[in-house]
Amino acid sequence: MAEAGVPAKPVDNRGAPPSLLLRYGSQLGIIGVGLAMWLGFVLAAPRVFTDIDIYRAFAETTPQFGIVALSLTFVVITGEIDLSFPSVMALGTAAFCLATAYGGAPWWFGLVCALAAGAACGLVNGILVAALNIPSLVITIGTQFLFRGLELVLMGGTGVPLTADQYPQMHALLRESYLGVPVQTLWMVAILIVEWFLLNRTQFGAHVFLVGDNAISARLMGVNVARVKIKAFVLVGVTAVFCGLLSSIYGYYFWPSTGEGSLLNTIASVFLGGTSVFGGSGSVVGTFVASFIIGAINAGIVSAGINAFYTQLAFGLVIVLSVVLQTLIDRRIRRQSLTGR
Amino acid sequence: MAEPATSNAGEPPVIELRNVSKSFGEVRALSGVDFKVNRREIVGLLGDNGSGKSTLVKVVMGFHTPDPGGEIYFHGKRVYDWSVARARDLGIETVYQERALCEKQPIWRNMFMGRELRTRLGLLDVERMRAEAARLMREHMGFTSAAVHPSNVVATMSGGEKQGVAITRALYFEAELVILDEPTMGLSLSETKKTLDFVRNIKQVGKPAIFIDHNIFNVYPVVDRLYVLDRGKVAGVYNRSDISMDALIERLYHVARTGTLEKFDG
After folding, report:
1. More confident residue, A302 or A111
2. Which CATH architecture is the domain B15-99+159-265 placed in?
3. Are B105 and A280 within 8 A, CB to CB?
4. Residue B33 pairs with which residues in a beta bridge?
5. B144 pLDDT tier (thresholds 50, 70, 90)
């Protein structure tokens, strides 16, 4: 995104639009990192990484957290964070199971219930953060336990089988391949396109940037800051449930622990994708590419014969390095504005 | 306190506040303020730091809601649901002391902040916003098209240029009333002169404005009427034609010491 670009010599070249390198530098950087890593994996495990199967596996599993990472990008651009989405994944899928397996409702009704539950969770988070002004880092830890606890109580801690015989439509929607491409990735591409328009071509998207950049200025100019943040949280809630359904249908079974373990790689995808931890800049395309890199780290490390313990180390490194890099860029922008340049 | 006669009696004021108070917890920033701006009139607001100038302006702008009992009239009609969005819809544009810019965003996003241009489909018209921003910078900010590109971020601009963005933004939306809240703060001499020229320009176009500054030398030459605020109250109202700059300065010193102008106007 152009927002991340910092002109190197502002005085001389301000008449020109920011160069491609400056506008898309962080995205190009991510793609470069991705390519380098892929090359490393190919060299380390040529048999695995020249086979189409590993790429099919990426295309099936990455969207299970990548789709919610796309929405989380909105929340992070507004300067907030949502740590509760793993529990929302489970609670929404539980709503689906309660409606269909226990309540006997048709699959589409279960789907509506599930997405509505996700929207409700997002609404709760958004109101607590934006209307009551509670730091999202703290309150979404609270709602993470709240939503997970609610799901465990409702389900009595038990799972529900989600076989293709019982849910043929859900499997057609969320598990098949079309033209050789796993439907999970088709969904992720479709949601990327929708959310790209939402972020870059709608008033809501424009306000997401303004709110994260300077909430007071945005308010002075008539932007309803609370409403913008609440909408972003609702977006995360709904897509979190979608990811919960994707991963449950993928495993033919709803586990009460659905979503656990998706927190780190989702957040890593957002930050690696170049979205600023300080708010005000970010890109869903960056998150999209970064999700697949994060997805590849896990599979790649195992296939390359490295101990799986290293994946945690790799995620940690990715988060720390990308946030440090952003801090350095951000500081440079702020120093420029302090000196008037 | 005698209200000075105004030239265009008969027409209701563009905006009028009656008995407006504003408290922040225990602090009473405004108490019982009556204030109005007539058509084609530039009104100056003078007062020390903490006299309530900015609070008054933020009430006019819809950012602060007045305490119960205060009334707001727009073109003679009482307005109840006053908010920033409402005020901007009615054509009140403000150049804030804080400039109210988002510095990491490109210039065009700042120009159209909160009032983004959209296509018939409801999507943002990014191309038109960029083109309009470039035109405004050329025509109102005196930038040659080669100087600054509208896609560059505001953080790369100087203080005066940033003020230019804020002022141009206010002008663009065919304002019914322009509010300038300490627009010269932190500006160099030549940038201050440019800003004052802009205020005169508003007058020539025939639009009303409120001009706040703690520097009387900036305010006096461009305004028609002056309010002196002190500790949240209106201490005096003057037509510029009725008072010399020296007499005004004398009153300002007096009010700062005693909190009242009774000796002069009582």
Report:
1. A111
2. 3-Layer(aba) Sandwich (3.40)
3. yes
4. B20
5. low
Cα gap A79→A257, rounded to integer Å? 29
User: Buried (b) or exposed (e) across A73-93, using 16+ Cβ within 10 A?
Assistant: bbbbbbbbbbbbbbbbbbbbb
Q: Which residue has the tokens 């439907």?
A: A183
Domain ranges of chain A: 49-327
Report chain B's mean pLDDT, rounded to a whole number: 84
Which residue spans of chain B are classified as CATH 3.40.50.300? 15-99+159-265
A132 burial via Cβ count (<10 Å: 0-12, 13-18, 19+): exposed
Size of interface A-B (CB pairs under 8 A): 121
Examine the pLDDT at A7 and tell me if it is beyond 50: no
**Most B CBs within 10 Å: which of A220, A225, A331, as the mutation test of the B interface?**
A220
Kindly report the CATH class assigned to A49-327: mainly alpha
Give the residue from B65, B103, B104, B130 with the most A CB atoms within 10 Å of its CB, the best one to mutate: B104
Distant-in-sequence contacts of B96-99, Cβ < 8 A, 24+ apart: B96/A220, B96/B166, B96/B181, B97/B54, B97/B181, B97/B182, B97/B183, B97/B185, B98/A216, B98/A217, B98/A220, B99/A217, B99/B162, B99/B163, B99/B165, B99/B166
Model-level pTM? 0.85
Cα–Cα dist A216/A198, whole Å:
23
Q: What pLDDT sits at residue A6?
A: 43
Q: Which of A30, A57, A35, A64 is CA-nearest to residue A303?
A: A57
Chain centre to alpha carbon of residue A293? 13
What's the mean pLDDT in B103-127? 91
**Nearest in space to A211 (alpha carbons), one of A287, A272, A126, A137:** A126
Angle at A282 between CA A182 and CA A77, to 5 degrees: 105
Residues of B with CB under 8 A from a CB of A: 61, 63, 83-85, 87-88, 94, 96, 98-106, 109, 113-116, 118, 122-124, 126, 144-149, 151-159
Paired with B118 in beta bridges are: B124
Helical residues (DSSP H) of A156-224, grouped into ranges = 168-174, 183-200, 203-213, 215-220
Of A80-94, A107-121, A162-176, B159-173, minimum mean pLDDT range: B159-173
